[in-house]
Every structure is written in C-alpha cells, then in structure tokens.
C-alpha cells in the first residue's frame, strides 16, 4: 500500500503514468561514431539545430570512445543528475562505457535506453552517438535506422561501410542513413553516397535510404539545409517508442498496472 502522505508518490496517477511511458514517445537515433571524421562534433551540432527548428528537445548521449568519462553518479546509474543542460533545446550525457553496465544475460544493453528515457523525460529525440559494437548491443533486432557518419576521405568511408556491415550482420539492421561532411563543391560526395548504397544492396541486402551533405565550415547557428530539415521532420514523424523494444514496453505496462491497482 502507498502512503497517501508520502510526497514522493505522484498526486495524480496520470503524472506517474506519463513518467513510466516517457520512453514510449521519445525517438532514438543511433549515430555511428566514426574516428576518421574530422568534424564529428559539428555534425552532431547540425543535427541538434535541425531538430530544434521543429521544436524538439534533443538529448545527446556521447558513448563513443572519444567521449568524456562519465561522472561518478552516472557510474552508479543516477543518470538524471548527470544530464547537462546545454541550451533550452539540447541536453548532453557523457556516457563512455556506461551502456555495457546495463548488459543482461543475452548480451543486450537496451535497458540503458530505458534508463535514459526515464532520466530525461523532457527529451523528444535522443541521439545515441556510440561505436557500432555498442549500438549492436543496444538496438539489435529493433526498428532503428542508424545514421552513418563519414566525410569524403577514403578512411572515413571505409569505416562507415564496415560499421554498416557489422550492424547488419550482428544486429539485423537493414535500413541506414548517411550524413556526409563535405564542402558544397566536393566532387566526391555524391559518388560516395552512390557507392555505399550500391555496396549495401549488393553485398548486405541492406538499404541506404537517405543521404545528407553538410558543410563542415558552416556555423551550427545557421539554418539547416532543406535536406537536413526534411530528414529531421521524417524522424519526428516516426512512431514514438518504435526502437525501445517489446520487453521494455511490457515492463512499463506491468508498472502501470501496479499503480492503478
């Protein structure tokens, strides 16, 4: 039985249910970290700007190998205390090494995503910037559409393809997008996108659904390109919670039933 005078208990059941189902409305976007891309931070900033233009609050989870070490509280999974507010529309969580702390007996770390959604219920979009191996454990067999990062140098393109191959073969993901950092007059940008799309289809049975080009010299405060604006709108129109997984939804439903009883 709950103590009616306990201030920690929500005064209205709807408020409690909204918190429990926070993960059911958030859009998770796996962003594949690429160590060969020189302007990865700029690319993440441009993504945040595009979502912010649509009024969405973005939480950036940086779990890449180059991310800052997480705060001690995060190591104890008190994630809400570790989410930093960067602006009215962007929050940030340093999470290097954190997802694997949530690994279950099957090797999945999807519960980390549920914990993040609970810690930041105000987020509409969560950009999960991590290595392809970490993303495999978080998003395996889900409806996620990873965003590959690359620029127009061979090493970056090779890494993007290798990451797509791993996510396809290990996690069963088949649809990808590409964000390419290249100057507007780059002679290789379109050819790179075509080659990646062809290789995805011919060798993996995968699909490069969309590709976007951003100028690494652009200012993050500039209005996003029409293509980036369209891509962000497309992500926001996806069904909320599609990437959370059935097990997380079942757990939330069980908790909700407990409150209503």
Quick structural gist:
With 261 residues, the chain is α/β, with parallel strands linked by helices. The protein has nine helices and eight strands.
Structure description:
This protein is of the alpha/beta class and 261 residues long. It has a domain at 21-145 and 215-260. Helices cover 40% and strands 17% of the residues. It is built from 9 helices and 8 strands. It has helices at 13-20, 40-53, 72-75, 110-119, 132-139, 154-171, 189-204, 226-236, 246-260, and strands spanning 27-32, 58-62, 84-85, 90-94, 125-130, 147-151, 175-181, 207-214. The protein has an 8-stranded mixed sheet, sandwiched between helices. The radius of gyration is 19 Å and the shape is globular. The termini are close together.
Write the layout of secondary structure elements.
Elements (H helix, E strand, L loop, with lengths): L12 H8 L6 E6 L7 H14 L4 E5 L9 H4 L8 E2 L4 E5 L15 H10 L5 E6 L1 H8 L7 E5 L2 H18 L3 E7 L7 H16 L2 E8 L11 H11 L9 H15 L1
Parallel strand pairs: 1-5, 1-6, 2-4, 2-5, 6-7, 7-8
Antiparallel strand pairs: 3-4
Helix pairs in contact: 1-9, 2-8, 5-6, 6-7
